[in-house]
Specification:
The two termini are 37 Å apart. The chain has helices at residues 3-11, 18-30, 35-48, 52-63, 91-100, 120-124, 136-146, 159-169, 177-190, 211-227, 249-260, 266-282, 289-301, 304-315, 351-361, 405-414; strands at 79-83, 106-110, 148-152, 195-202, 231-238, 246-248, 334-339, 344-349, 377-380, 387-388, 393-399, 415-418, 428-432. With 433 residues, the chain is an alpha/beta fold. 44% of the residues lie in helices and 16% in strands. It has a 4-stranded mixed β-sheet, sandwiched between helices. It contains 16 helices and 13 strands. It binds uracil and calcium ion. Calcium ion (CA) is lined by residues 88, 90, 243-244, 246-247, 252, 255, 268. Uracil is lined by residues 165, 174, 179-180, 183-184, 207.
Length: 433
């Protein structure tokens, strides 16, 4: 098989076979196919697209390019959730304990990564003592015992995706639905999921800013999952403004604690219950979405979800008392209010630009080497649709430096106030299954 012939085949709009796709991914991972040929192929895919079958084969070829996690010793159907990322997205911290509390095994592999705030692991590490450096065997035992454990990303998961993503990043081919969908799905499948629930974000703070593109991506991922034998469902949710109120590491842990006790922001609670219901359904712990929802609301109200969080934190070395005394989480030295300068209604809170403001405080990493400050971040006091009076606090800035003029300027340019009443945006735009 000559790579040049395969590039030509795709360039001319023909379908690559299973053998061809596996040959390409194997060759590229081994270093036998050079970057310049792979770049030409990704550009051909960008313009010609891929059939459902090609997408499924590409996904599985990437799954088998490195290690795969065997969760076979965990009892029950392992359901994983993936979010395409947003600003202040606290869902993972809430969903883990929430669905574990009704008996769904959650074996979460998570990372740090770059972004406005840290990843799930950074957030959890704001709980004193908590760590994810555990052996695979302990990880599996903990999931069997407590239904929930989190482990750091294995070094050699989907190396083909890692290389390909880096290549796409510098060849203007990131933005291709078949390539994004297979990239995301390969990582979930390699991490051992039997079933997958996807939260595809849409709006200013999302990877996909346009609703139609988000729907297409969701459909592409659901089709791949179902073709390769992993039941998959997706919802499209709003990321025009940040989710919940908190954007920051320790601040989001506190928000997760509030939400698990039924006292969190209503948008975050609703999104978690919706995603959680799909997870419970796919794990076959309920017969209908309504039944799943009732179960989740019950564990939120009776304290079981919070208790599950505590057990999970303690099992991985964390101080479980933070659950009842969140003031034990890292706290920033200064709390500075951003005051509204006019009366009216909040009409816009541009999510990605608020995320950048959090990053200016040190809540996220700009480069892999950046140090993260777990204590700092933002708490929104108003959301789109809320009425405000001059002098009301729009945002509380949690900072470890006294002068935050740069952060205030960024926030003022991200938040708009209108004199006319504004409706809050929809939270969930569509379900794809
Ligand atoms: N996120 C991924 O993991 N892969 C992509 O290709 C794009 C976003
Ligand atoms: Ca949040």
């Amino acid at each position: 098989m000559r790579m040049v012939d395969l590039i030509e085949k795709k360039r001319d709009g023909h379908e690559l076979t299973k053998e061809e796709i596996h040959h390409i991914i194997k060759g590229y991972t081994a270093g036998d196919i050079p970057d310049y040929q792979m770049s030409a192929l990704t550009m051909a895919i960008y313009f010609q697209g891929m059939t459902d079958q090609e997408r499924a084969e590409l996904t599985m070829a990437m799954v088998h390019s490195g290690d795969t996690i065997d969760l076979g010793e965990i009892k029950g159907i392992k359901v994983d959730k993936h979010s395409t990322g947003g600003v202040g997205d606290t869902t993972t911290l809430v969903l883990g304990p929430l669905v574990a509390a009704v008996g769904v095994p959650v074996a979460k592999m998570s990372g740090r990564g770059l972004g406005h705030t840290g990843g799930t692991i950074d957030k959890l590490e704001s709980v004193p003592g908590f760590h994810v450096e555990i052996e695979n065997k302990q990880f599996i035992d903990l999931v069997n015992k407590n239904k929930l454990a989190v482990i750091g990303q294995s070094g050699n998961l989907t190396p083909a995706d890692k290389n390909l993503y880096a290549l796409r990043d510098v060849t203007a081919t990131v933005n291709s639905i078949p390539l994004i969908a297979s990239s995301i799905m390969s990582k979930k499948i390699a991490a051992g999921a039997n079933a997958i629930v996807l939260d595809v974000k849409t709006g200013a703070g999302a990877f996909m800013k346009d609703l139609d593109d988000s729907k297409e991506l969701a459909k592409a991922m659901v089709d791949i999952g179902n073709l390769v034998g992993r039941r998959t469902m997706a919802i499209i949710s709003d990321m025009s403004q940040p989710l919940g109120y908190a954007i920051g590491n320790a601040l989001e842990v506190k928000e997760a604690i509030d939400t698990l006790s039924g006292k969190g922001p209503k948008d975050l609670e609703e999104l978690c219950i919706t995603l959680g219901s799909y997870m419970v359904l796919l794990a076959e712990k309920a017969n209908s979405l309504e039944e799943a929802r009732t179960m989740l609301v019950e564990v939120m109200n009776n304290g079981k979800a919070l208790e599950t969080l505590k057990t999970f934190l303690v099992a991985q070395g964390g101080d479980g008392t933070v659950v009842d005394q969140p003031e034990k989480l890292p706290e920033a030295r200064f709390k500075i209010e951003l005051q509204a300068q006019e009366d009216g209604y909040v009409s816009e809170i541009i999510a990605d630009s608020v995320g950048t403001a959090a990053m200016l405080l040190g809540a996220g990493r700009a480069t892999k080497e950046s140090q993260i400050d777990l204590a700092v971040g933002l708490v929104l006091n108003k959301k789109v649709g809320d009425s405000v009076k001059t002098g009301d606090s729009l945002v509380t800035i949690h900072s470890n430096r006294e002068n935050v003029d740069d952060v205030k300027n960024k926030l003022f340019s991200s938040i708009s106030i209108s004199s006319n009443a504004v409706k809050a945006p929809e939270l969930i735009y569509a379900t794809v299954e």
